[in-house]
Amino acid sequence: MKTAKITMLLCLVTLFSFANITTLEKDALVALYNSTNGTFWNTTWDLNSPVSNWYGVTVEDEKVVALNLEFNNLEGELPEAIGNLVNLKELNLFRNNISGGIPTSIGNLKALQVLNIAFNKLDGELPNTIGDLSSLQTLQLFMNNMKGSIPETIGQLSQLQTLELYNNKLSGVLPNSLGNLSHLKELLISSNNLTGKLPQSIGNMTQLKVLSVFDNSLLGIVPNAISSLVNLEELVLANNAFFGNLPNDLANLSNLKVLMIGNNDFKGEFAQLQNQFPHMEQFDFANNNDKGVLATLDTED
Q: Residue 185: CB partners within 8 Å, gap ≥ 6?
């Protein structure tokens, strides 16, 4: 009888523990619902039904592990309580009408692997706590109105493979810590208000396949370190204020398929440059010092 009572007590403690976790996460979801006009979502939630039945919510072992509400007419700001969804691995809020900033509590989501709030109306700054997302592999915030600088803490995202911040209003210089992103494969930061030079540390991102910085106010000489990016397939530097000669070892980028360097102040014999890249498909050097014209090649690998 005593053993049965102890077993029952342990079961109650376990259930109580699960209830606490579920309640904390449920409250965070309800806060998101309330702050983004949940009653007018394209597909809304019945708050009286189990969380596991809510549209876009994935629950495993009594934990909310994914939240996918893309194209769902969320309108409003993200609540600070979103940082209580500590078991999230994916947060996808793509193509909604979310405004304001990303709460600093986002840094609590240590298990998060995918964060996509692209194509919204975010107009705040990228918080320093973004660097606390130690499991993050994909960060997509493009097509917003985000301002301020890219924080140095971005370099703490040691697992990051995709960083897409293009079409915002980001300003300031590129942080030197970008070079710490040794697993990064795609860096797209075009169409912002970024200034300064490309950091030498960019040469450390040897897994990089796409580097796109066009339509900013970046300047100076392109560092020769960029020639270390031997996996690079797309290099887009157009519409900036770069000048001088291209790196001497640029031909090391033998996998390059796209090279866009137009509307800068580069010097050189660009018409011959395309011959150094056996897989080149698109090459633009218009409006540089030799007054070249657009050259698009239709070649096969």
A: 161, 162, 207, 208, 209, 210, 231
Tell me the DSSP string of 202-270. Answer: GGG-TT--EEE--SSEEEEPPPGGGGG-TT--EEE--SSEEEEEPPTTGGG-TT--EEE--SSEEES-H
Could you give the percent of the chain with pLDDT greater than 90? 83
- Please tell me the least confidently modeled range out of 2-6, 52-56, 104-108, 198-202: 2-6
Amino acid identity at 13: V
Q: Where are the domains of the chain?
A: 1-138, 147-301
Residue position matching structure tokens 């030799």? 290
- Nearest CA among 266, 265, 284, 262 for reference residue 274: 284
CATH ID of 1-138, from 3.80.10.10, 1.10.3470.10, 3.30.390.60, 1.20.272.10:
3.80.10.10
Cα Dmax for the chain: 93
Same fold, 1-138 and 147-301: yes
pTM confidence score: 0.89
In a 13 Å sphere around the CA of 253, the CA atoms on its Cβ side amount to 30
The CATH number of the domain covering residues in 147-301: 3.80.10.10
H or E element that contains 295: strand 295-296
The distance from CA 178 to its chain's CA centroid, rounded to whole angstroms, is: 13
How many other β-carbons are positioned within 10 Å of the β-carbon of residue 294? 12
Rounded distance between C-alpha atoms, residue 242 and residue 238, angstroms: 9
87: pLDDT confidence band, cut at 50, 70 and 90? Answer: very high
CA distance linking residue 231 with residue 167, whole number of Å: 25
CA distance 119 to 116: 9
